[in-house]
Amino acid sequence: MKILLLLPCLVFITFLSVGNTHASERTENNGNLILKNIPDIPNGIKSDLSKYQNVRSAPFRGFTQSGDEIYITTRFGNVSQLHKVKENGGARRQITFFDEPIGSSARQPSGHLIAFTMDAGGTENNQIYLLNPEDGSTALLTDGESRNGGPLWERSGSRFAYQSTRRNGQSNDIWMMNHNGPDAAELILESPDGTWWGPSDWSDDGEKILIQNYISITNAKSYILDIQSRTKEIVLGAIGKQSFNAGLAFDASQKGIFFITNEFDDFNQLAYKNLITNEVNVLTESIPWDVDGFAISTDRQKATFTVNENGFSSLYLLDTQSKQFSKVDGIPIGLIGSMQFSEDGDKLGLTLNNYQSPAESYVLDLKDNPLLYGDLTRWTFSEVGGLDVSKFIEPELISFQTFDDRSIPAFLYARECKDPQPVIISIHGGPESQSRPSFSQTIQLWIERLGAAVIRPNVRGSDGYGKQYLGLDNGFLREDSVRDIGALLDWIEKQPCLDSKRVAVIGGSYGGYMVLASATNYSDRLKAAIDIVGISNFVTFLENTEDYRRDLRRVEYGDERDPEMRAFLQSISPNNNIEKINVPILVVQGENDPRVPVTESEQVVQSLEQNGKTVWYMNALNEGHGFRKKENRDIYEQTVILFLEKYL
Length: 648
Fold this sequence. Notes:
The protein is an alpha+beta fold. It is 17% helix and 36% strand. It has ten helices and 39 strands. The strands form eight sheets. Strands 1-2-3-39-38-37-36-34-35-33-32 form an eleven-stranded mixed β-sheet, sandwiched between helices. Strands 4-5-6-7 form a four-stranded antiparallel β-sheet, with no helix packed on it. Helix 2 packs parallel to helix 10 (630-647), helix 4 (478-493) packs across helix 5 and helix 6 (538-544) runs antiparallel to helix 7 (547-557).
């Protein structure tokens, strides 16, 4: 950890010898943001970007006990906080006032208390707090040091289960506590390995908990834990067999469970298992896409689930007794998340997001038509900084052929053109993630100010296209995903509206590795590269990422302790191939990042400088895996524009 002794509000500039050049370093935001080799941001960029940097969102966080009001998170200062909204289109009343953004939240069943998580400075060492929304008082419930998450209330509302690394800082164990704080916490399941264990649902009598054991994105098992005896029984999946089986909820009889599985298909399907007969019934056999969201009502009589159809969300309602379901019509095209029923089951709250609208809270009325459809009402109307979203460019779903004749999907944002447009390739992280057509004022800014087209590819290894596609980049296949970017560059060359001589790449986390790898392999075809919290060396990354997530990443990237795999990972790591990089690079990092440690950025910046390469570096001392504070995000976005205007 670096310690900087700086006076508030002053800017310090030093000059460091780097080959035949001089590197300037200064700080912003009271010393919390270090900028190296980055020129001063012109006032014109600051003023022009202001409206893009004042967009808000209001994702749904749950109903009040009565079901007449909702909770949301939104930002009116530097970070997002919890608010209450009393009616659709009504004012937002802020009820938390912290310097850090609120994480997950869960309201006490048949009560009003809220358990929520929050970390400090992006460390992801989340603590669990208890909020009384009536008077705004909060109490710290966990130990203040370990990593905690996923508070899941028992149906009676007297206690909750949660995941924590409290025992040894590494294991993802399951604990239970009431309202009395860390001294009341009980360890109820010790993780036997480095995989993730977490609670999914309580039985109605409070005697059992449905547990998920997440090993990888294509391998998960589920158990039922007996609270009294502390014994667990595997109910989904099998030891030694790789398949994804994530237990979701008990049914009303408590003799069966709903779960998501890929055991019977290439995609994740919704299924039901009878715990008495062990019979499994796949419910969504007719849907050739991933089921990626689920919620069940308090009385367990109905449920809802979402399907990822080529990046777009569809919403379904399910009768849990007959197992019949129907698609909900009239839902705006976009992405759906954060689904939750009101306690009486008459309403379904959710978050909707599309390319013209940031995340907003909606309520679906199910009282008159509980299993077929309902009236959808938009409850929040967030500010969009004065932007005319009707002029936003709609993403077009395209595909391109890659080196092994596979079709790679991508979303293209491009205006009709008279002259070829420069291109920005935005690569998602994960790698088990997916670029989807969500709201992005940043993409629209690039289109408007830079006149650029933006392409968001879902290279092999991306989620949403089946388990076979997910595994195409694992271990020794890692560089095949980079070759997909090469194929995209080939596709760009054939498009009359795209300028193949002016292409930039940008990406974060694993996407940051993809940016550095693209710069390593295709420098002669790129003009600029922006690496955000990216992996520069897989071996040092695996050795230095936090203990509680190391084994999870080895499943994807390979085990660096194996000599053959270690040699391969070293050979493909961008930091070991600096001489091949001949494109200007902007590197962005959070000092407290627990996932991709700051050393990954520091070492690649140092290597680039020592080899006389052009590199700009930005490090936020009060951030982690990405920037969550508006003051830091603003300067980051301004810097990206300055960098692209200069080099693209």
